[in-house]
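Figure 3 (text version): structure tokens given as input.
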């Protein structure tokens, strides 16, 4: 049975974080169960963008430090790495303090840039994937996600954090491939997770992000850390505690359909502190839109007029060009300084432009279809 340890942690005071991490890992069997002397241990925090720490976009350095110290105690050698969609690890880690922690731990801090083709395990949807060589070659992978909302996948936690092992521009290609199909994208995330098999996942939920995550939401104090050997079990156990209706969580739908999770949520044992004492009642989730399969011309019209669509605010734009660079179908282009036009017919609603915008200048305008679905959801029982 999968175990998920939940430990209260009020703030990022180093002693509080060290004690919560230690307790959570002990509940999972102790660090010696995962790391043996001399092993190369890859720590994979969320390093999405170079946002100041108080915006809670990235895994807090206090968590990376506490986990790193446990790894050193067990005799492991540490590598810290990620592949941000658009920025550089060197800049992000300087801004959020992870670079300082890497120096303190004597760890190598790397940008993933070596995509390697790897066969996926039996039962996968994709037969082979291109993933970062350093992650594939590590003796042990420890996954360090940040708890945030996600405008495309509803939430990003343990499973989604491993998408960082897809190297830079190849992320856009996968978005293009999955298009608006969230289940297809969830299938990809599940295959990445099953291929990388992180030994341990430790979720930073001390401060999370709610609303329009994963880059432009609002910080939300949750006050916990969680640990598990099974990132999928962890995500599916924590989502309902945040008020998520299972059927609206793409990862849940994909996992249940593939027999990787039970629809009644059984098969997971919660350890540690009482979730009722931790989780807020009013966590703000983003609204997901959906475009049902239908004839191309109808789908285009419905997508254009009834579904949510990205709009850019020229007054907030800093002209950095990141949104145009990341757009998989090249639907977004600049017609003048600060002013972008978006072709809503070819736009696949991947939310990448909103995710990378450092100025919060791209919003999704709610479509009429979303309003109808939300009203129906409000009057329908679970
Ligand atoms: S909209 Fe945002 S991402 Fe795009 S150029 Fe302006 S500031 Fe940069
Ligand atoms: S405009 Fe934005 S949401 Fe649309 S495809 Fe491009 S990056 Fe994705």
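Below: residues designed for each position.
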């Amino acid at each position: 049975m999968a175990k998920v340890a939940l430990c209260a942690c009020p703030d990022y005071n180093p002693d509080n974080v060290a004690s919560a991490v230690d307790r959570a890992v002990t509940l999972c069997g102790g660090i010696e169960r995962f790391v043996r002397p001399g092993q190369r241990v890859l720590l994979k925090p969320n390093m999405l963008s170079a946002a100041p720490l108080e915006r809670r976009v990235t895994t807090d350095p206090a968590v990376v430090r506490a986990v790193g110290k446990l790894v050193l105690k067990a005799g492991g050698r540490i590598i810290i790495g990620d592949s941000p969609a658009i920025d550089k690890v060197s800049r992000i880690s300087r801004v959020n303090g992870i670079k300082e922690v890497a120096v303190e731990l004597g760890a190598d801090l790397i940008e993933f840039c070596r995509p390697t083709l790897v066969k996926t395990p039996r039962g996968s949807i994709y037969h082979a994937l291109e993933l970062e060589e350093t992650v594939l070659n590590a003796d042990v992978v420890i996954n360090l996600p940040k708890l945030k909302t996600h405008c495309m996948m509803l939430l990003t936690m343990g499973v989604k954090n491993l998408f960082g092992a897809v190297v830079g521009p190849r992320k856009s290609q996968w978005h293009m491939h999955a298009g608006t199909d969230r289940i297809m994208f969830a299938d990809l995330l599940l295959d990445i997770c099953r291929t990388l098999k992180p030994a341990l996942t430790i979720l930073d939920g001390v401060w999370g992000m709610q609303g329009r995550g994963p880059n432009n939401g609002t910080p939300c104090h949750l006050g916990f850390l969680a640990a598990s050997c099974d990132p999928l079990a962890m995500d599916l156990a924590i989502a309902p505690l945040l008020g998520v209706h299972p059927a609206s969580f793409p990862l849940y739908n994909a996992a249940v359909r593939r027999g990787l999770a039970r629809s009644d949520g059984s098969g997971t044992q919660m350890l540690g502190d009482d979730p009722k004492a931790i989780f807020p009642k009013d966590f703000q989730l983003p609204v997901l839109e959906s475009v049902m399969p239908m004839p191309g011309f109808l789908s285009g019209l419905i997508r254009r007029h009834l579904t949510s669509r990205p709009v850019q605010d020229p007054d907030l734009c800093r002209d950095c060009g990141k949104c145009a660079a990341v757009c998989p179908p090249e639907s977004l282009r600049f017609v003048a300084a600060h002013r972008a036009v978006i072709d809503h017919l070819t736009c696949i609603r991947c939310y990448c432009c909103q995710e990378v915008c450092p100025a919060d200048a791209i919003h999704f305008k709610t479509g009429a279809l979303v309003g109808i679905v939300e009203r129906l959801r409000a009057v329908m029982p679970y």
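The CA atoms of residues 133 and 334 lie 36 Å apart.
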